[in-house]
From TrEMBL:
Protein name: Transmembrane channel-like protein
Keyword Nucleotide-binding: no
Family that this chain belongs to: Belongs to the TMC family.
Family annotation (InterPro entries): TMC, TMC_dom
Pfam families hit by this protein: TMC
Source lineage: Eukaryota, Metazoa, Chordata, Craniata, Vertebrata
Top-level taxon of the source organism: Eukaryota
Topology of this chain in the membrane: Multi-pass membrane protein
Gene: tmc7
Primary localization: membrane
GO molecular function: mechanosensitive monoatomic ion channel activity
Positions with biased composition (Basic residues): 32-46
Organism of derivation: Carassius auratus
GO cellular component: plasma membrane
Amino acid sequence: MDAPDAVFVPDRRAPSSHLLLEQLPSYQSLLYRRKTSSSSRRRGSGRGRQPSINSGKWAEQKPVHSGEELKPVRELPKSMQEKQHEKQQRLQQGGALTGWGLWRLNVHRSLKRLKEDGMDVLSSLQLWRADIHLIEGMFGTGILSYFSFLRFLVLLNFIMFLLMFVFVMLPVIITSHSTHNITYSSSNGSECSVYLGSSRQGLVVFHEHITDLLSGTGFLEHTYLFYGYYKLEFIHSHFTYNLPLAYLLATITYLLLSLLWIVKRSAAGFKRKLIQDEDRFQSFCNKVFAGWDFCITNENAARLKRSSLLYELKMDLEEERIKRKMANRTRGEKCRIYALRAALNLFVMAVLVACFYCIYVATVFSQRKQAEDQKSNFLLELVVEYLPSIVITLANFITPLIFNLIISFEDYSPAFEIRFTLMRCVFMRLASIGVLLFSLWVQITSCAATDCPCGYNHQLYPCWETHVGQEMYKLVIFDFLIIAAVTIFVEFPRKIIVNYCDCGLAKWWGQQEFGIPQNVLEIVYGQTICWIGTFYCPLLPAINTVKYILVFYLKKVSLVTNCRPSTRPFRASSSHFFFLVVLLIGLALACVPVVVSIAEIRSSRACGPFVSYSTSWEVVPRVVSQLPTGLRSFLHALASEAFAVSFFVITCLGMFYVIALAGAHKRVIEQLRDQLVMEGRDKRFLIQKLCQAQQVVYARSPERRPLRGFRGHRNDAGLYLVELETQA
């Protein structure tokens, strides 16, 4: 029997249970469980020998001398009366302390006060603190979560930039202005090492500088911006600095740091989601009694929040109706709806394949046109440069409209419709980047001749890493231009038309709503590009940081001026959990091309720090081979199959333990929920008995006039209850 059930276990050495307590619903439920479970009877009989005075609801509560004695009284999970009692006990104990105990208590208080002051200082230095509080006050915590997520990405990109700057760029900058002994990456003088770049010669027209600035070619190609500029191998000063190893380790570090940071931030949201999404009745209670956002100070925002809560309640009721409808479906109806969903999903797959094929064709066409190196019109040249980015943007704009139309015929619940549509959009946005990279890999690794003497197509791509970096650079620039153009040339004119035009079309169009999931997908798409492109374009995190700062102010001005919160809110908009899950998917996708290019594709022999290596990863075994024998043997042991198998087994055991612990915690949560329900039933039962006792007392002495409620007869009713128990 569980510990909470020990409340009602009879004790042979204690007095017999009271008749009134035995009538409680919780006690009756316990008796039913004991009758239906033989194992529970055995455990109950074993615990029945223990004195019941030390456990249970009516037992005397003893002070707990665990970590709670170091917590502030206001943070203890106790009632107000218990907190007052705890405070009095602490004051008495503090007055009795002397010497070491008093010094320890004072030190703990001082350290805690210092920690709180430090946290206050850090919170006051938080980026965009006042702006985010303003947004929270006007639009609530739903839209606040988007801007907090954007601030997190700004900090993440800034940390990534610091890693690449300190370990890759700074050594190169220092050596270019010093007299250190430098070893450059060696090349054998073959045709594979020829790299002229795309620098323009002679008189350069102004629009060509604009093209170079937007595409990363020309004067930007041989700068710190791209991979090909870092051709150093060793820097000899007081010690030897291995630039290729630092470049590779910095790349691995920013990917691992991003993973750990995202997982850490998503853990708390995942726990809350598990608890909140488990019980539909609890969801109704949370919305009715705790759904209001008291940070709202704007009347319009309050009205929208009220309509949002109303919509969420309607959506919950609609989900319950659909669940009942699904449970009552006949076999023929199930076959029909499954066949329809299969056909629509095939159509979705066809749309995705068509989009991916268009991206592939656009990429191949753009690469071939750029290889021809023919002078053409400025706008035509710019369109050819940005053709893959344009096709990807059009696909990302058209496919959500198709998905929203298709999902209405699939007969899903409203919440699942939103999630499923968003996951399709996420797949489309992130997979389009993968298709672009696949198209580039095909062009890079395929040669016109039967074999590739350099291991890649050196004629078209003498420095293919720089070329990939230029494509990622163009995607980031074009993504920002699209966001800025939509904000300036669509959202602001729409606001003006809706406010100053009384035509029916303007009323039908309505005011712009701030779609949280769609805006999140935009910045996750940009962050995925940044993760992929940082290896090829080390300054891309800095560009992305500036981009997200500008996006923050653009979105803030557009939100305050043009937009209103969505009247059909997304359920996960009040927390970062959904955002971080999508970001984690983007990180997983970004790791694939980076790992493939590091471990599989031949490094360029004409540029970059890995000229002397067949692949970028080859620098690791070469450095390990130069280490002392003991350390080298230790690293080889870590990389051996025996260690890998042992680590895998230990990881599986740890995972099984965590799963079992999570299951135990879940059972405890369920027991506590049941106990809360029983507490409510017990209170209702006792109130009913007290009312009955009051009526009996009033019937015995009708000359006494009853007061409002039963407070005036509480003592008489209590005496009557005692009399009933004595008679029993």
